[in-house]
Write a structure and sequence with these properties.
This protein is α/β, with parallel strands linked by helices and 351 residues long. Helices cover 32% and strands 22% of the residues. It has eleven helices and 15 strands. It is globular. The structure holds magnesium ion (MG). The site of magnesium ion has 6 residues, from loops.
């Protein structure tokens, strides 16, 4: 058998995102997020992708780089055979959803550039219907949370606050002292007792909260189902819903799901998840990790499919190496640019 060269060239560059604020959740705290930037080249066109990997999820820059550089793309002559191509990438190794997302994003970017169209247009979506994004406030001492909320008041139409710490109610009251902006709450599995969780949700419902994300550990399906039955607010699965197949377990346990490109292995499966969830009568939020404007730009292409949007990831980063969609009137909407609509600020892939 002759050894033919691949029509594709793939380059990967590890990059460390510096966060503007220490980011503290119920179970972790950090000031940086490792990411892996990807360039997929063929026929003079370059598509960009990214694998953003908050450490608590278990993927690493080295692991993602090894996964991506060991892909054998020689048999994929037709760049439009995306179903077969992405299925082969998924089969290449178990897990590693962020690494798989990086390839999916780069391939979509390449195809959109080849066609000269942004993906929201190829999907027939109206970006003018993009819901406003929330701005995330991590777990902070109440006075710090109040300052952050006051500083961001007017720029965003909702704040997503992280609870599950020792001072939840004091933090909510401090934020409420600074702004009447609607709130969303993410507990990151931080509450253990379902009766206590229901009391917290009822207390939050009286304070302008729109929904509660992952209030209890994802394994506690019976408790979550009980809480969902009794809750005055929608209860959403984030940690409890990673990929499409997880949707089978959601109805009756949660009111809805949080879809993220880095969990869902990219745009292709994330889009299916958003559409399937809606068909099942579930609410949807399109969220993100702390990530560059590359992955955020990709997510904005799907944003019109979601009920709620939380795409502030690049706004939390001090050294964003991509230019992409910007915040306007509280909305981060897709750009006119072809593909995913992001460009590197410098030649990240030189040398
Ligand atoms: Mg979450």
């Amino acid at each position: 058998m002759t050894h033919r060269p691949s029509p594709w060239q793939l380059a990967v560059v590890p990059y460390t995102l510096e966060l503007r604020q220490r980011f503290t959740l119920a179970n972790s705290s950090r000031t940086t997020t490792p990411t892996l930037l990807v360039a997929l080249r063929r026929d003079g066109i370059c598509g960009y992708g990214e694998a953003a990997m908050p450490p608590y999820l278990g993927e690493t820059q080295a692991g993602a780089a090894a996964f991506l550089t060991s892909l054998d793309l020689r048999s994929f002559d037709d760049p439009f055979a995306t179903a077969a191509l992405l299925a082969a990438v998924d089969r290449h190794a178990p897990g590693q959803p962020a690494a798989k997302a990086a390839f999916d994003l780069a391939l979509h970017d390449w195809l959109g550039k080849r066609l000269g169209q942004p993906w929201h247009r190829l999907l027939g979506l109206d970006r003018a219907t993009t819901p406003p994004t929330s701005y995330t406030i991590g777990i902070h001492p109440p006075d710090v949370a109040r300052e952050l909320a006051a500083a961001m008041h007017g720029r965003f139409r909702s704040f997503k606050i992280k609870l599950g710490g020792p001072t939840d109610r004091a933090m909510v009251e401090a934020i409420r002292a600074a702004t009447d902006t609607p709130l969303r709450v993410d507990v990151n599995q931080g509450w253990i007792d379902r009766e206590a969780a229901l009391r917290e949700v009822e207390w939050l419902a009286a304070r302008g909260v729109q929904f509660v994300e992952q209030p209890m550990p994802k394994e506690r399906l019976d408790d979550l189902a009980w809480l969902t039955r009794h809750s005055p607010l929608p209860i959403l699965a984030d940690e409890g819903c990673q990929r499409l197949a997880d949707l089978r377990r959601i109805p009756g346990v949660y009111h809805g799901i949080v879809v993220k490109l880095m969990k869902a292995t990219g745009l292709r499966e994330a889009r299916t998840m958003l559409e399937t969830a809606r068909a099942l009568g579930l609410s949807t939020m399109l969220g993100c990790m702390t990530e560059t404007s590359c992955a955020i730009a990709a997510a904005t292409q799907l944003a019109p499919l979601a009920d709620w949007v939380d795409l502030d990831g690049a706004l939390l980063v001090a050294n964003d190496p991509f230019v992409g969609p910007v915040l306007q009137d509280g909305v981060v909407a897709a750009t006119d640019g072809p593909g995913i609509g992001a460009a590197p600020v410098a030649d990240l892939f030189a040398g």
